[in-house]
Amino acid sequence: MPKPVNTNPDFFGFADLLSEAERTELAEIREYLEREIKPLANDAWEKAEFPFEAVEKFAKLRLAGYQYPEYGDGQQRGPLFTGFLSLELNRIDPSLAVFSGVHTGLAMGSIYHGGDQEQRDRWIPDMADMTKIGAFALTEPEGGSDVAGGMRTTARRDEGGTSRSSEAESGGHWVLNGAKRWIGNGTFADLIVVWARDEADNQVKGFVVEKGTPGFSASKIEGKIALRTVQNADIVLEDVRVPEANRLQNINSFRDTAKVLAKTRGGVAWQALGVAVRAYELAREYAVNRVQFGKPIAGFQMIQDLLVKMLGNITAMFGIVVRLNELVAQGRGSAEQAALAKAFTTTKMREVVAWARELFGGNGIVLDYEIAKFFSDAEAVYSFEGSREMNTLIVGKSITGHSAFA
Fold it and tell me: pTM of the predicted model, to two decimals?
């Protein structure tokens, strides 16, 4: 009698490290995402439009408050749970996972870690409820990997001028000028965290620009082949006046900005794992059901070789992200470890989605079979939050003591 088929991409059972309650909660989240979010995904991706009905559906899960329990449901969840949650979101749809990650990790994270208590209390409750959506504006048209040293968006302190409130009047204003590019959620966000270089001390600082502020404009980037649902924007800032009360009080240099990025970089490694997991699931299911030469193609040696290589990559990815989250939970996770995790997992993800698309043959290039979307989206995941090359140089400096940055 044949043994039961193991369909679990978590071949070594890393999820067993979660508590029973956490596994139950994740199973409920997966079921909800399958039922409520997945049906929106392919149509939105093909049209390159954002399904705004998804916001209310995400809000019902209280996903935005999971990392900030005092503003969410009050339950403290560990970093490992947060990682598996990211896996589930990306397994359903990378574009909608990016929407959630930009809002929850980058925008809320910048305010939570870079703002003072008043700022956290002012903005995060509405962001946790998803009644206000956030964006994170760091990358510039001429500054991606070198944005730390080459940032051209400027901030100038203006103690005088016309204020709209006594609070703003007492602290003066900042005037922002410049441009940003590839800003996820940028076309519709209510709160945009904008990073700009202070003309006075040449240090990078963070500002929360609220929707409708005069001089702020955002236009959608068209023609993308990846993460098509994500509404990436080109942003222009022309004499945008921001009150001192909207300057993130605990951000005084790019080093402080980098601390926020280090926290999210490990999240991208989980994102890569979620993409790889779904590609493998799709490929395995297709191989079992696709009949050629009188039998399922899963019975051919070369197909099994592809599947096993995918599973090997996924298992290695699980190992690195789970250990990273354990170190974070112990307060021992480093930026260099996060950089290695991002570089390694996105590279292995790229291999997995390519092998999966190969297994589908001609069917792998049409959206009907879903793998084409994950194959395309993987290219964006591979590139953002620090390219493989930049993360490699971060790790290289750590292990040699020599900086090879140009």
Answer: 0.90
